[in-house]
Amino acid sequence: MTRLIQNNGRGNIMGETLLQVTNLTTRFHSRGNLIHAVNGVSFKIDKGETLGVVGESGCGKSVTMLSMLHLLPPAARVVAGTAFFHDKDLLKLNSREMQRIRGNHIGMIFQDPMTSFNPVLTIGDQVGESLIYHNISNRAGAEKRVIELFRMVGIPDPEARLKDYPHQFSGGMRQRAMIAMALACEPELVIADEPTTALDVTIQAQIVEVVKDLRDRLGIAIIWITHDLSLVAGLADRIMVMYAGNVIEEATTEDLFDQPTHPYTLGLLAALPAFQASKNSKRLSSIPGSPPDLRAEPTSCPFLPRCSYAINRCAIEMPLAHEIPGNGSTPHSVACFVNTQERITVQ
After folding, report:
1. pTM of the model
2. Could you tell me if 15 and 159 are in contact, meaning their C-beta atoms sit under 8 angstroms apart?
3. For residue 276, is pLDDT > 60?
4. Could you tell me which residues come within 8 angstroms of residue 205 by beta carbon, excluding any fewer than 6 positions away?
5. Region for residue 114 given its phi and psi (left: phi exceeds 0; alpha: psi -120 to 50; beta: otherwise)
6. What is the DSSP annotation of 312-344?
7. Burial class (CB in 10 A: 0-12, 13-18, 19+), 308
8. Rounded CA gap, 210 and 239, in Å?
């Protein structure tokens, strides 16, 4: 495979933008209502970089990525924005052009490998399918490559497991096979959509270590979607926090944990046992209230009803992201009218 990148020093390939998303806006039509699922999301990821996308269920994390890959259900559509992968706007590609990108240049690790695999086809055939589809290998070459991939992701006795069906794999092994499938064509970017949610803590840690090792060896960029800040703490270079279809804070991982600024980010961190222990807190906190109704077009801060830092302006205007001082190599931005560290208005 000629596209394989051997890279043990990740810093020498980061800095060149691989994906640039600007003002991505996605709407769902449901029972006569318009659901404001993604509201002007903008972000970028460099070659070899790992971006963690964090937020509670329904905040638009997965829909943002599925919008770029043309994998939305029929009831949804992208109404605005661009998503440049190299020099191509993914949102403007037709279905045939997008098929050449998916799997070949952008891989996807789905949340539930049991439902993502076809139960009546062998794991080996499914992992090798993209190699044949993209004319990278013939059937014999694909089988050899799948064995190599199984070995790479830590599936024991790969030659024997090649002909097994999904139900013959454990949850952790199915997820490893899903990672192998995402890496089959050696893509430049892999999107991992909460790939460890259904696994126990021990298997989660193993899967994260497998992904980190492959990232460092192959030089791929990763977008890791999760609701668990602690999981991406040791994995991501940068973290993007989403709430109600909006990006509300973005910073390097170190900056986000050292200087969390948005009230929602503070609430997420306060719910982490390790974070609270470091501050000698005796009990965990929770964020009161519920997420906003996404049927209503956002005209004010979406976190307003749950925020203890709110000011009058929050009720009449949407806060825009602005940069604040940080220690990272990339800007620390937050969409909030209040400096939560000093409790002063900043916009």
Report:
1. 0.89
2. no
3. no
4. none
5. alpha
6. GGGGTSPPPPEEE--SSSS-EEE--SEETTTTE
7. exposed
8. 20
